[in-house]
Amino acid sequence: LEGHNGSVYSVAFSADGQRLASGAGDRTVKIWDPASGQCFQTLEGHNGSVYSVAFSPDGQRLASGAVDDTVKIWDPASGQCLQTLEGHNGSVYSVAFSADGQRLASGAGDDTVKIWDPASGQCLQTLEGHRGSVSSVAFSADGQRLASGAVDRTVKIWDPASGQCLQTLEGHNGSVYSVAFSPDGQRLASGAVDDTVKIWDPASGQCLQTLEGHNGSVYSVAFSADGQRLASGAGDDTVKIWDPASGQCLQTLEGHRGSVSSVAFSADGQRLASGAVDRTVKIWDPASGQCLQTLEGHTGSVSSVAFSPDGQRFASGVVDDTVKIWDPASGQCLQTLEGHRGSVSSVAFSPDGQRFASGAGDRTIKIWDPASGQCLQTLEGHRGWVYSVAFSADGQRFASGAGDDTVKIWDPASGQCLQTLEGHRGSVSSVAFSPDGQRFASGAGDRTVKIWDPASGQCLQTLEGHRGSVSSVAFSPDGQRFASGAGDRTIKIWDPASGQCLQTLEGHTGSVSSVAFSPDGQRLASGAVDDTVKIWDPASGQCLQTLEGHNGSVSSVAFSADGQRLASGAVDCTVKIWDPASGQCLQT
């Protein structure tokens, strides 16, 4: 799918997969039919790179934010620009639709948040009050509330329907880094530079509690799956567990000797893991706040942590060349997986949690039994840093992409290297299995995409044609199509079964940074640095639309849930909403 004249910054599929939107540096948004590859519309109007794009849940609208300080609303079906939402005097950094798609929120560098009606393009409200760039916006699950966090140290709660600022949550004395709604939307948490976490009632705007105790910036906040606990990690080397309903600090988890950079709950919410720069991982009981174990022994910062699907095992990979497998219930370090001679960059559990894979800078991959800690196999053969690892959906195959320009397919159960997929002449930066696990795609710096049979390791096709490094690969929801975006400013649509290049989507005049299929797979969107977004029909390869108007690289594109709208965000500070079918720019 060609046509873009700039890097694609954002791509997004509609919920039904019928449309794909791409926002790019060529200042345009393109609407594509991912099934045929046809570009329905080139949504023009943005005068700067599009940074962000988002579809409404029903897919009837597409929003795009860009550097030109505008948001555009498009009808992804027709490509019509319904509205150019003007008023922002700074780059639009974030756009988000409410759960029902009736409202669109945008946060920008002009210190404001705007609430729009994506159907009419009417700016319902310009939410003013922030005295600094709005860094994040989030709707509650039911879409009844909108929260925004900014560098002015405040959080604001808005009614997206009326645009009314229900509350300006003050109290933070530093930039707000993170905001998160509880799963049920009854609580809102915010973490900031002032070392505090605040718990709010998004309905009333009441600050239930100012969670104090941290003596360092709060970098991360996370709710447990049931919303009964809130965890915060901070620069004071501690983790705190809170009751978001009462605001009570249940426990201050101390022991870390360095800033806590990440916190994560197990799937069942019974355990909380925290990784810090002190090279340790801690396992906590979020209900009691008890530190079950301080997992020490790492001699390097924890770079990756992951729970097994059932939450019975916890793995951590670090720059000290080791991987540790823990029992999150007891905190016992079941195994210190040694053998890597380079930083562990990637760790992944198989879907059933029976196997664990780690890829590292020592050019090897290790397959482990997370229950026993046994290293089943040291997968050797890569002659370069292993950048990416991925399990097939059924967990029967494991793929790895590395700096030696190869992809390897492994049997995670036996550790057997089924195939060394050679042919790439550049580092493999991206690997992806088809939904059914029958095909495997790899994109690399040699400007090619390869389609493999993960069962036999056979290279079905070497998809050539790209004249630049392949930066992104994505399968359609049904696995019948495969899209690749590259530095040569083109997008290619492939048949992963035959390896046939169905279409070379041309038109972008800048590197394609992002590609995404609509939920139904009927459309493909691409975003590029040429400031445009293109909409394609992946089946025919036809460029349905070249969405122009952005005045900056398009960094993100996203389809609405029903695929009827496409949103693109760009560096021109605007968001555009397009009709992917017609290519019309519904709104800027």
UniProtKB/TrEMBL annotation:
Pfam families: Beta-prop_WDR3_1st (PF25173), WD40 (PF00400). GO terms for cellular component: histone methyltransferase complex. The keyword Chaperone does not apply. CDD domains: WD40 (cd00200). InterPro entries: WD40/YVTN_repeat-like_dom_sf, WD40_PAC1, WD40_repeat_dom_sf, WD40_rpt, WDR55/POC1. WD repeats lie at residues 1-42, 43-84, 85-126, 127-168, 169-210, 211-252, 253-294, 295-336, 337-378, 379-420, 421-462, 463-504, 505-546, 547-588. Gene3D superfamilies: YVTN repeat-like/Quinoprotein amine dehydrogenase. Keywords: Repeat, WD repeat. This is HET-R.
